[in-house]
Specification:
Elements lengths: L6 E5 L3 E6 L3 E7 L2 E4 L5 E4 L1 H4 L9 E4 L10 H16 L8 E6 L5 H13 L4 E6 H8 L10 E6 L3 E8 L2 E10 L2 H15 L1 E2 L2 H11 L11 E8 L5 E7 L4 H20 L3 H10 L1 E4 L8 H9 L3 E2 L7 H11 L10
Parallel strand pairs: 1-7, 7-8, 9-15, 15-16
Antiparallel strand pairs: 1-2, 2-3, 4-5, 4-6, 9-10, 10-11, 12-13, 13-14
Helix pairs in contact: 2-3, 4-10, 5-6, 5-7, 7-9
This protein binds adenosine-5'-triphosphate and magnesium ion.
Magnesium ion binds next to loops.
């Protein structure tokens, strides 16, 4: 019976994933919730809240509790987590599970404590915190406990977390570089400049997911009709956006990520850096799904990049691995 009610939680700025020991991923929803400004009541969480993005009445705010890697609201985080806990457990109704949390390594100790407390308040019996870079590395199949140097670059929503791992510890890191959302912001800027319409976060994301591409296939650009608000008249207008219009602005974001990786490599011990050059860099997080990004980074930095088959769930898969292999992994807990 012992350990059967363990759960793993990858709480990101964009997505929350819950894994249950022995069952794999049980929940994968946007880390977003709609809150009534006046009463502070939570009106919708996750999938139900995402449909409200960009179209909420003035008395409702949409909150991303971990936006930009820090904890913005304790109470909301706690209630949101309680909702996820109930939903992921379904009718099994596991009583007070032990929670393995994978949190951004950039959180301060105070934030870490606050988040951990929120999750205890929401119904967990105990919490164990694992650095998200370590969880992602494990999920991508790297043996992080050996003395080789590994580099994991997790392109999340708000930030890109660049980390060098050796012997189960993060030995060099930078988490100041932009995450995947910045590619959407770049797209919104191009659409505004070239087509004179303003689009929201959700539309920009849709364009990115449909035709965001850094592979420079100029022969047959994709195109998509996009509706926004006309800058001059303030009225809705539909324009045709082509994929090749977007590439160069998006490349600038990739460039910022490449620079961050470069700096971390420069600050890594030579032996560990040599391991990384030999074995390559692992790219995880939703941003790793952007076509052409890993090749572009590889060409810039002259290091091979690899992307696991489902990069966005790497940290959650890593948590499952941790729950199944607790012995031998003692060194990784924060
Ligand atoms: N197919 C795709 N192509 C390009 N970008 C994508 C794709 N799927 C998801 N993304 C982007 O990935 C980002 C979210 O990644 P992820 O779910 O790993 O973030 P997170 O773990 O919640 O955030 P963080 O780790 O920063 O806390 C978003 O910017 C999203 O738009
Ligand atoms: Mg993440």
């Amino acid at each position: 019976m012992l350990g059967r009610d363990d759960i793993g939680v990858d709480f990101g700025t964009s997505t929350c994933l819950v894994t249950i020991k022995g069952r794999g991923i049980a929940l994968r929803e946007p880390a977003l919730c709609a809150v009534d400004k006046n009463t502070r009541n939570i009106l919708a969480v996750g999938d139900d809240a995402i449909s409200m993005l960009g179209r909420v009445p003035p008395n409702i705010v949409l909150v991303r509790p971990l936006k930009h890697g820090s904890v913005s609201d304790y109470d909301i985080t706690m209630r949101m987590f309680r909702y996820y806990l109930r939903k992921s457990q379904g009718r099994r109704n596991v009583f007070r599970p032990r929670a393995f949390l994978c949190l951004p390594g950039s959180l301060t100790d105070v934030e870490l404590r606050s988040l951990s407390d929120a999750i205890l308040d929401a119904g967990a019996r105990r919490t164990q915190v694992i650095d998200s870079a370590i969880a992602s590395a494990l999920g991508a199949g790297l043996d992080v406990t050996n003395s080789y140097g590994h580099m994991i670059v997790d392109i999340g929503g708000g930030i890109t977390d660049i980390a060098v791992i050796a012997r189960g510890r993060v030995v060099a890191r930078d988490s100041t570089r932009p995450g995947g959302d910045r590619f959407s912001e770049a797209i919104a800027r191009v659409v505004r400049r070239k087509h004179s319409i303003v689009i929201g976060e959700r539309t920009a994301d849709e364009i990115k997911l449909t035709m965001g591409d850094l592979t420079k296939k100029t022969d047959t650009p994709m195109q998509m009709s996009v509706t926004g608000r006309n800058l001059a008249l303030g009225l809705p207008r539909t324009v045709l956006v082509k994929s090749n219009e977007l590439a160069s602005e998006m490349e600038e974001v990739a460039q910022e990520i490449a620079e961050g990786i470069h700096i971390v490599l420069e600050n890594t011990l030579p032996e560990l850096a040599a391991d990384i050059f030999e074995h390559g860099i692992t790219l995880t997080g939703g941003g790793a799904l952007l076509p052409g990004l890993s090749d572009l980074l590889g060409a810039q930095l002259k290091v091979p990049f690899r992307v696991p088959s489902d990069p966005q769930t790497a940290a959650a898969v890593g948590l499952s691995y941790v729950m199944d292999n607790l012995e031998g992994l003692e060194s990784i807990f924060r």
